[in-house]
Amino acid sequence: MSSILIADSGSSKTDWSLIGSNHKTKHFQTPGLNPFFRTEADCLQLLNDELKINPKKESISKIIFYGAGVKTKNEADFVEKILKKHFGVKKVEAHSDMLGAARAAMGDKKGICCILGTGSNSCYYNGKKIMQQNPSLGFIIGDEGSGTYLGKRVLQYFFYNTFDDELREAFRNKYGDDLSDILKKVYKDPLANRYLASFTQFLMEHRGHYMVENIIEDAFIDFHQRHVLKYRESWKHPIHFIGTVAYEFKDIIYSLHEQYGLETGNIMKSPAEGLIKFHKEELEKS
């Protein structure tokens, strides 16, 4: 009997869900497969080394991949080629992580869906497809409200001497104060976005401090003003969020939405469960 493999891939990690013929699901995790940051050889090596799925044993008939970095047909073709080569499966679909988030959060309902994880993105989804989407400019130019955006603020506050003594000491104890080392990792590391996003942990550990709260709130205001509030449908339908950053700081999202007069929808740490539910329902319909 055949199985279906669903992948939700961000820049930091990929969650794999293997749905068997009995609808029981097995879960796996690997580092992210973002075509912007990895070559074909990198991706194949990662799958060989990290993904503990035996393609022949599991009899996979179809793979549905949702990924950060899958923005055009070229990237979709790139990912599909890699998955076909590794798994030996003919039926492979590669979609944007935005479509995956929308399906996970809303199923067949209308609404605004936002991703706030390592990166950020948003769209208006009509229950079947994405109808409008602001461009995602990546962590150097955009990614407002994301882990990388917050991480940059943490570094700025420390090295520009904006943090008070308490937070400066806490930062120094956790990360040191070697500016040259940090700049090297930011500007030389091919996965600099993940490195920057790692500094959101510092914010999580110091919730309640007014400077920390200001950093998070300012970042979320930037995201809403540049993205959410640009959709006229934001005042007609719920606003849903997917991603660790949204989930960890959801209290600030609720507060902002109260101020803006917006309806808050689902706030999910990961789209995995929602995607499993969506595709199981699709299987039952077919």
Automatic annotation (TrEMBL):
Q: InterPro entries per the record?
A: ATPase_BadF, ATPase_NBD, Euk-type_GlcNAc_Kinase
Is Metal-binding given among the entry's keywords?
no
Pfam families referenced in this protein's UniProt entry, alphabetically? BcrAD_BadFG (PF01869)
Coiled-coil ranges per UniProt: none
Which keywords does this chain's UniProt record carry? Kinase, Transferase
* Alphabetized GO MF terms: kinase activity
ATPase BadF/BadG/BcrA/BcrD type domain sequence ranges: 55-219
User: PANTHER family from the entry?
Assistant: N-ACETYL-D-GLUCOSAMINE KINASE
Name the chain's protein. N-acetylglucosamine kinase
Q: What organism does the record attribute this protein to? A: Taibaiella lutea
